[in-house]
Amino acid sequence: MATLAMTTLDPQSRAARRGWSDLTIRNAFIIPTIVFLIVFNIFPLLYSLGYSFTDFRASTNAPANFVGLANYRALLNDPFIWSNFAITAKYVIVSVTGQVVVGFGVAMLLNRTIPFKGLITTLLLLPMMLSMAVVGLFWKLLYDPSFGIINYALGLGRFEWLSDPDMALYAVAITDIWMWSPFVMLLSLAGLSAVPKHLYEAAAIDRAGTFYTFFRITLPLVAPILMIAIIFRTMEAFKTFDLAFILTSQPSAELISIRLYKMAFQEWQTGMSSALAYIMLIMVVGITNIYVKYLNKVKER
Amino acid sequence: MRIRVAGLVAGLAASLAYSTSAFAQELTIFWAEWDPANYLQELVNEYEAETGVKVTVETTPWQDFQTKAFTEFNAQGSAYDMVVGDSQWLGAASEAGHYVDLTEFFNKHNLGEVMAPATVKYYAEYPSGSGKFWAIPAEGDAVGWSYRKDWFEDPKEMEAFKAKYGYDLAPPKTWAEMRDIAEFFHRPDQNRYGIAIYTDNSYDGLVMGVENAIFSYGGELGDYATYEVDGIINSEENVKALEMYRELYGFTPPGWAKTFFVENNQAITENLAAMSMNYFAFFPALVNEASNPNAKSTGFFANPAGPGGAQFAALGGQGISVISYSENQEEAMKFLEWFIKDETQKRWAELGGYTASAKVLESPEFQNATPYNKAFYETMFKVKDFWATPEYAELLIQMNQRSYPYVTAGEGSAKEALDALAADWKATFEKYDRYKQ
Amino acid sequence: MAAVKTTSEVTLNRLAVVAVLIITIIFLAPIYWITATAFKPRNLATTIPPTVVFEPEISPFVKLFLRRSQLREQPTAEEYAEAPWWERLVFDGGEKIVRDGKGNVQLSGYPSRFMNSLIVAISSTVLAVGMGTLTAYGFSRFKVAGEQDWLFFILSTRMLPPVVVAIPMFLMYRWFGLNDTHLGLIILYTAFNLSFSVWLMKGFIDEIPKEYEEAALVDGYTRMEAFFKIVLPEAATGIAATAVFCFLIAWNEYAFALIMTRRDAQTAPPFIPSQVGSGLPDWTVIAAGTFLFLIPVAIFTFLLRNHLLRGMSFGAIRK
Known about the structure:
Chain A folds into two domains: 22-51, no CATH class; 77-300, Orthogonal Bundle (MetI-like fold). Helix content of chain A is 71%, strand content 0%. Chain A has helices spanning 14-18, 22-51, 70-76, 79-110, 117-125, 132-143, 149-154, 168-193, 197-205, 210-239, 242-247, 256-266, 270-300. In chain A, α8 crosses α10 (210-239) and α12 packs antiparallel against α13. The radius of gyration of chain A is 25 Å and the shape is globular. Mean pLDDT of chain A is 86; it is low at 1-7. Helices cover 49% and strands 12% of the residues of chain B. Chain B has helices at residues 2-24, 35-51, 62-74, 90-95, 103-108, 111-114, 117-124, 149-152, 155-165, 175-185, 205-216, 236-249, 261-269, 329-339, 342-351, 358-362, 364-369, 373-380, 392-409, 414-431; strands at 26-32, 54-60, 82-86, 136-139, 143-148, 193-196, 273-279, 298-302, 313-314, 318-322, 383-384. In chain B, α2 packs across α15 and α11 crosses α12. Mean pLDDT of chain B is 90; it is low at 1-23. Chain C folds into two domains: 59-97, no CATH class; 110-316, MetI-like (MetI-like fold). In chain C, α2 crosses α13 (283-303), α5 (110-141) runs antiparallel to α11 and α8 packs antiparallel against α11 (236-252). The longest helix of chain C is centred in the N-terminal third of the chain and has 36 residues, at 2-37. By secondary structure, chain C is mainly α.
């Protein structure tokens, strides 16, 4: 399944004597990256793992005291934290599903002979070229009940998108879908255009229905790249911070990253926030692992 | 060749010497990115003209000011010599040794009397009542109110108001009057609403707003010396005050659930509300016709009194502190000596800064300089502030968590919210061993 | 039968074109609105119904580049007459330009931060894509013990919320003296993007038939020559696609740009939304900053659009 190693060079050949050996090349290509990632990721990770067992506060120079698992215990017993996690789960599901439906749908539409396809595709990518903070700021204005253009355009009167506790989270998700569907669209488009045309022709000859063609030919072939898109979007959605923080302050939309930010940079409970980060990390690694396993399975088919 | 090298070395040495001496003649003040920082830059330009010491005011956006300042303190970086920091930071920054102790400087210049007493108490002293000072009151600020004079002075409105409530329509003297006026002007069908208040719970917006009610209702947040909270934060006055705040929320424009100084100023410029709570520091934008089309018809009043006649307002503003890790502390102290002079404070006020100097505040020139200076003067002698202990942010977030659902969604009751808050605060103080002292 | 099918196909295609148009309009409406606001006079920025026809103004861009503060006293007629055109625009907006002790006009943070953004984003993109391509090639063509685990490790570096690594990173950077340097941010963004770059590039390189290289090796090329002369050109589209994503992420990064920099290396994203100094946002200036900041990425993406499409499909599907 994984790529097989290439046939090695004949050690006696001229080329082999002139250049580096395969082993050297492999090491020279891979090791720097791994070392680099270890230094700049593992090191801070270990650091915060250490903090997570202490009452360290980065705002003071007071020495940290070892508190064992107290931080973890306190967090797992905090009802506010649990509700933050539940909110985040809901957000990830709504937002990623929305992005996949919209992104993949648009890709299906674009996967035809459409005039100005290149230009339209580039234009559709514009939302994800903006920074999250700016998107948050402008969407807050767009959603404004008194002078926002969304209510005006949709004729919704004074609908309170961001301050209705039941709506706030969805409003944030809608913004996220607007911003990141193009990403899913781009990857899906790539997947779709790689489906060999003769498969469709064969299906047409067999008089296969649209549904059959879609579920039996299109979807399975696009699935691997769609999975990559989903993995990256899930990871990002789980970490969503700027956007939600700027848009709304409803407790019903307080994502775990927002709580984490407050704990780390407003309260300066560095130890406690490191512990929370670890709990989050374990969850993301778990979820991603399932995805990756599934991805590999899909690829094998 | 050798000569050339020697010349090069000499030149290098000279330029090094020059650059170090130039360095000693420079001071950097760190503040948030807003107009007062620009006014301060103009003020310190005059210091440069007088002494040759170049002072730069460096800024960062408000929402990141706290984070950035403390990250920098923690790194013990010498990039900034002074910081104009929030009053709530005093505990965290002094206990951690980030600020230079200014007690001696303070007593030598008798600043306890030169500056308005409330500003000394909240911008400079920590712990409360200890006589130790960590900052010089620099930018005084508190919450006041702006209102639509044209709406208030419309004869038809005045008549209707009198008929309905039995007294004259005028800037409110009490919270009860303010409630009536808010109710009176609250007309959603005309896109006009009663009142704009702070509700943002991402940092200290909502809490500042609620404090205005609590303090004027005669309540307190707790005993700042003994950390006693039960029976104080959830006192009867505070319950009434929080209920009033919730009631006012009913008269706010639609979607008023994440609002702070920007939204509240917009409530006036966009013709949304009759009255709007805001820091005095943000009022200059309201008298500027380029930014407020209603500038001519915008008036100002001080935070009204509660039912018992008490009248207080929530403190904003900052004091200027010398950072312990600065390499130019002596220069910084010299600068502060200049900064506290009466002439400097007077000039500071002229440029647009909100001086805390009692003498300047009391002068008629100051009080007549702008439509809001009088209200500012009245307010600065009756301000109260939030906790300044190092764990203030935890207290703040707990207060947000408990009061926000009640104020904006009517969940539970004011009593329940404040009882729960008292328990949270007590647990937090226990966690930090505050009761042992 | 065939004729019927074609007719319905044509109808379907027309419907698709209409749907695409509608979706494009919906997606672009906010962008259009930001762009329009960047050229509006301040008093038209928040009108309802929105102002569509207006005389475009340059003043938001002038203001964006200057450090300004509220006017407290109107300038005298003489001062106004003597002021250059750009200063008059600022006066007209009820503001004045902040000057330093020598009377020099002070610029806002925008131009220098914009330059920093360019330096940091370009360098880190080159590094991330370069290293990512080499590593992807290594994983694709050679046997690596525990390959799947390494790849998962590389992916996992994207999982931790940045807020948390920020503090240890900050302390580590202080140790290395990397705080507030371009190099520091470049390294950081390279580390962010490497995982994405390795994963995408591995997909692309896996698709390049090994037979191409083997033929070259038989012809007497060394492995390195084969890599540079055969594999890289084949992977060009993939590299372009990856570069676009890496550039986008580095260009818009916010949290670390804020914490790790002070004055020398600060990038633009934290600055753009902060134009609320007087307590009232000037939406036109924020929009102008956003608009200018969008141009480089938009151009970059547009130039690489064909690569982007072809490139993505290249790495998409395993045979």
